[in-house]
Records
---
Amino acid sequence: MKMKKCMLAMLLVPFLLLIGCTKQPTQVDNFYGTSFELAKQSQIHDLNAGKDVAPVEGLEGSVGTRVMKRYEGSFEATSPKTETYSISVDGIETK
């Protein structure tokens, strides 16, 4: 009788451990990654954009002119002078 119980326990314990380790699909598993894919697809404007690998050639005339003038003007402009403040803490003055 004791041998039967021991054999039953030896067969039953691994079986129960294996059953406990099986993964049951959940609602989250069924839709995992769906929100990411939806967000990614909603941000894609032109689906065929990656197929055209030719470089972009220039800008529209009036836009290009304004951009180049602003770019060239950025080297001439000087930054405005900032004011400095002095703070005195325990007789030590810092700037």
---
Amino acid sequence: MRDGGKKVGGAYGLDNLWKGDVDLQYFSKWGVAWQLTQQAFRSLCASPFTSILALLTITVVMLLVGALLLVSQHTYGLMADAGRGLTISVYLKDAAAESEVAGLKQAIQAAPQVAEVRYISKDEALKSFHKSLGEQAGLLEGLETDNPLPASVEVTLGQERLDQEGFEQFAASFRENPAVESIQYDRGLVGQAAALFHFFGSVGLGAAALLLLLAAFIITNTIRLMLYARRHEIVIMRMVGATAGFVIAPCLIEGCALGLLGAVAGLVVLYFLFLLLTGLLAQLELVRAILPQLTFLPWYYVFLVILMGVAVGAAGSFMAVRRLADE
């Protein structure tokens, strides 16, 4: 029981407390919190092999989560560029009045998803068509006096996400305009890009969830091994009146510490790998053309990875000690 009392009293054993050698402020809320934190790190250091193995595994898992976010960031960036470069052609009626065309252009420019509006007259359309035919341009002889091509308004979008329904709604909002003959855009491109966007989003979310579950599983089993090694100590602590919370708190701190350290270590490794890969990829012209600027995770993604590491650590450790919580 003397050993048990020493365990409960921690660094301030009961003998010292009775002798008055310990300042009672250490048993305040902050003092108890500090004592539990010390106990948690002593437990981690008491099983170095298990702790290091768990930490390395969690580091790899959080490294993969960070890499997944990094790939998703640049994939969505490519899709945003595709959305910003998409052009919609609004063909005008020959009988449309100048005031109607001017009103249409003004209404299109006011739309938040529009980046640029360019008016193409009938003559400009014919010249462009003539140039595109090349050697066969002679087929257009005689059309200068009776130009069948309509004038149009070319709309370049600046939105960052390809959404087929959004494009349909945008086109429908101007289709009933009295100056509009028809509206055309590449529906196939929009549909395929939107499908890819949702596919990558679903796959990324599923992969991240599996990796986080794996991290929680590793932490759960690590804490269980530590609890098994301390089973006699825990029995003595409960016999002398230690509450379940006093026993569980160090375990939760251990899990959070493993998650935090694993997340930080994973991000550090990811950063150096990113520097190495960007140096190698910068030498490839194709990569420079597709991804002219490779950037690391922004601060809020870094914070998210760290937060996920702590949350997974807390969840994993709670799963390991939930039986004690019910007692």
---
Amino acid sequence: VDFQHLIWSLTLEGNLAVCPAHRTAKRVLDMGTGTGVWAIAFGCSGQVIGVDFSPIQPSWAPHNCTFEIDDLEKPWAWHEPFNFIFCRTMEGSFADPQLIIQEIYDNLTPGGWFEAGGFVLPMGCDDGSVPEESALRRWHDLMAQAGEQCGRSIESPSKYTKAIEDAGFVDIVTHKFVWPLNTWPKDKRFKEIGRWMVLNLDMGIEALTLGLLTRVMGWTEEEVLRLCDDVRKDLSKTWYHAYWNVHVVYARKPLQTECDPESQREAGPCPRSEPPGPAKSPEPLKLPQPPKSSGSPTHESPKSSGSSDSPPRKRKRGCEALSDP
């Protein structure tokens, strides 16, 4: 979780969130707080409650930051609403995302904001450098399949913009970013994110995979561990130009003066207003396009040409322009 926080911080250039209102929010809920690293960082600015199913938070925290152990899929019981509700990287955590979105709406003050961020499956690869039969592709496909089978789809928040709108939110905005899955890009910022992504998956891949594949897909523990080892090997191949698309969605609960409940039932959803711009909007992290000039860009290749893992020789194109010389 702490590695993920660092990756998000690099992506957002040090900002704790994308939504402009997070800078002025005085009462904040951090859903799925994990180790509490985000809540503690935010606790310097306002009152924040971090809630999680697992008691893995530190015993020390700023005086205006508290932690609660609770199941967010059960009815929420907070007596005072929040100005800002934050949710990040909780794909597959909820059996009924629409119900959770409605709980979020009901527990916001009028004019309050909600932000959710997460990655998008399947993984991205623009140049075909990751073979279809690779462990990396197989792992992504299996995780998505297992999530579907157990009723907890691993989908990004952008998949639920219709549910967010149906709940009553307005000013719905989506920002899109990219996380390389290793250090293949030339760009220093992408390369740094890729380095932390390798560490993040290296330390957490068993925790992500064991439960889903053994309980849902019927795999043995030995089979799962073998797959995880193979995925680690693929992550070390810098000629594999893989990445995650990452989406952040934020939205606002309308003020009571904007939409009277009685008139809303008669006239339908509230009209959208123009969302305010962030005080310091982070630049979306996007993969640059390759130059149009002649000559093929080069990429990092394995030292041993006789290795069975050597990539096939083919014309270079697409995102290979970003890769190491």
